[in-house]
Design brief:
Chains A, B: It comes from Methanocella arvoryzae (strain DSM 22066 / NBRC 105507 / MRE50). The structure is a homodimer of 336-residue chains. The first copy, chain A, folds into 2 domains: 127 residues, 60s Ribosomal Protein L30, Chain: A; 156 residues, PurM-like C-terminal domain (Phosphoribosyl-aminoimidazole Synthetase, Chain A, domain 2). Chain A contains 8 helices and 14 strands. Chain A is α+β, with helices and mostly antiparallel strands and 336 residues long. The relative contact order of chain A is 0.18. The complex binds adenosine-5'-triphosphate (ATP) (2 copies) and magnesium ion (MG) (6 copies).
């Protein structure tokens, strides 16, 4: 990037432009590893060896607008986001932080509602908020509450986003596009049916069930930039191609309808309660069955497989093939 | 708090009003402990037992304005703040997170400068940034960059802010009020001499030296709300009174001059590279000597002692006594 360049909205939108900003600025941090998997891996979190286990550490800022949305609120979102990044590294979530920046004038009752959602999401996975921080900014300085949730988890063996091998099956743990499409529809004031709501959920129990079966080679949660972005990252980092069957992609009918009307690809928007999982072929059916038995895994399917080569290829319903490109950025702003 | 109440600036200013907001809202989180010391302790961080050690976890949002200030910048501040909270728990800082929220239009060169400061501060203590997150907000939504830094450290034995016993000596590791007073003077465009700059520093090495000697019973860093706030918190939580000698309080001449002119008490403003330490009386001199040998401990002094009773009492230069009250909030806004 040249010296005159400034940060633009797309730099925070989870796609190729954000990767480029991170690559040219933050990945330049030299003190970037504390043993194990550090910043250089650009994975969902870091994993630091400790005794015979690993401590996984991850962080996310949540700037979603509006703060209360169909299917959740910023409290549930912040816990889910951090629990899920820990889970993607194979780690049981243990302890989380609650760093809030509040605009002056924010109703205290709304804070209490958010705290209740935080508690409900924590209870689902048995994690705790153990520390936090509170800053308040003048209303001219900040338009909406920001919550940073960092967290630690424990694992015997970290799972990476780069571990796919040719032949591995690719599972998604449920329907695609619900969070991003429902959020934009809500913001635009569209009504597409009552089913249209965020999938925002802490999915550790689903991931735990999959890990117990075994054969998992890679995981990543398709947040900003969606499944399109995550498949591309996993393929690139794993040095494989990923082949996906269009007719296997699980998209809710009303999500599809809203996406069509809005001109947005459900593959490119954020999900907040889903995982993309690579599994050894021989284990795929048992892992899938275990996932489907869990609350947030009922709609899980195998959508394709990893092969030699590079890129993400969609085999279309009419028998054609096309690349699924990584988006420059998520088309829906302030989505998480 | 009643249902119509709204968050105001003083709720984020580190004093009694913030404690009241935290107490009535965030301390209501029920899933608040992962073993060991959790949110209920309201200490500088949490400490979770792991094998025969403790993992300490802490977090801070940094919203300081301006981002570049005399003696540091938001990068150095964010690392120092988190390193110091880990250190206050007795923990060696290991791995930190870098969660940034950037306003659209922020110069990429400034980001790079901040990253350099981050790296320098990390190198001073041997810690690493291992993971991060990047969000961008429209310039109407946010006026200045926010950095959340969370972190983990390791200790055999967590030190609490509530461990003072009657008879313990109270050490401050250096001069008081430098950060807050220099920041407000800079913002107001005052020139009080070249020495007026933030004390912003990661002081793990100073704390490590003190811990190696032994006899430390309590620690807390006097950030928002200053030494006045921290002494009151430590006294209250430890069920002791603290007696301080006014003529022993180390305040730089130019800090004193600026504070007088601004009508601000240096005891009530944030420090960003200092600790208040309780030590068993018999160890106080050796601990002090060890601290003074370190880079950020040269001006350390014993300022008083803990006794039976309650409250913080200043023994004035002219032989009188008065309470040092906890401030409602730090008089300098957006100080960290
Ligand atoms: N400001 C930053 N400093 C250091 N590393 C960063 C920063 N922003 C992002 N990263 C790193 O870049 C990678 C991608 O970050 P990203 O936030 O997209 O991951 P994620 O949290 O899994 O996704 P999402 O934020 O959409 O939930 C991660 O490894 C993250 O640690
Ligand atoms: N939003 C929050 N949610 C949960 N706990 C919080 C929140 N804000 C603060 N706390 C807790 O309240 C206590 C006081 O927080 P505070 O931020 O003042 O501590 P600190 O980080 O040591 O000081 P500073 O932020 O000035 O550096 C800490 O134990 C902290 O974990
Ligand atoms: Mg992720
Ligand atoms: Mg994430
Ligand atoms: Mg804090
Ligand atoms: Mg502190
Ligand atoms: Mg702090
Ligand atoms: Mg992230």
């Amino acid at each position: 990037m040249t010296s005159a360049e400034k940060v633009s909205l797309i730099h925070g939108a989870g796609g190729e432009m954000m990767q480029s900003l991170i690559g040219s600025v933050f990945a330049g941090i030299r003190n970037n590893n504390a043993g194990g998997i550090g910043l250089e891996a650009l994975d969902d979190g870091a994993a630091i060896p400790f005794g015979d286990k690993y401590i996984v550490l991850t962080t996310d800022n949540h700037v979603i607008k509006p703060v209360f949305f169909p299917g959740g609120d910023i409290g549930r979102l912040s816990i889910s986001g951090t629990v899920n990044d820990l889970a993607m590294m194979g780690a049981k979530p243990i302890a989380l932080t609650n760093g809030v920046v509040i605009p002056e004038g924010f109703p205290i009752d709304d804070l209490k509602t958010i705290v209740r959602s935080v508690d409900e999401a924590l209870a689902e996975v048995g994690a705790a908020i153990v520390t936090g921080d509170t800053k308040v900014l003048p209303k001219e300085a900040l338009d909406s509450i920001i919550i940073n949730t960092s967290g630690i988890g424990i694992t015997d063996r970290p799972i990476r986003d780069s571990g796919l091998n040719p032949g591995n099956k690719i599972i998604v743990t449920g329907t695609i596009g619900d969070h991003g499409i429902s959020l934009i529809a809500h913001r635009e004031g569209f009504k597409f049916g009552s089913e249209l709501k965020s999938d925002c959920a802490p999915i550790w129990k689903t991931i735990e069930a999959a890990l117990k079966v075994g054969g998992i080679t890679a995981m990543k949660d398709p947040t900003r930039g969606g499944v399109a972005n995550v498949l591309n990252e996993m393929a690139k980092k794993s040095h494989v191609s990923i082949h996906v069957q269009e007719d296997l992609l699980p998209v809710r009918r009303d999500v599809r309808a809203a996406a069509d009307m809005l001109g947005i690809d459900p593959l490119e928007v954020a999900n907040e309660g889903k995982a993309v999982i690579g599994v050894e072929a021989g284990m795929a059916d048992v892992v899938l069955a275990a996932i489907r038995k869990t609350k947030y895994g009922k709609d899980a399917v195998i959508i394709g497989e990893a092969r030699e080569g590079s890129g993400v290829i969609m085999h279309t319903k009419i028998g054609g093939q096309r690349f699924i490109e990584p988006p420059l950025g998520d088309p829906v702003p302030r989505v998480c």
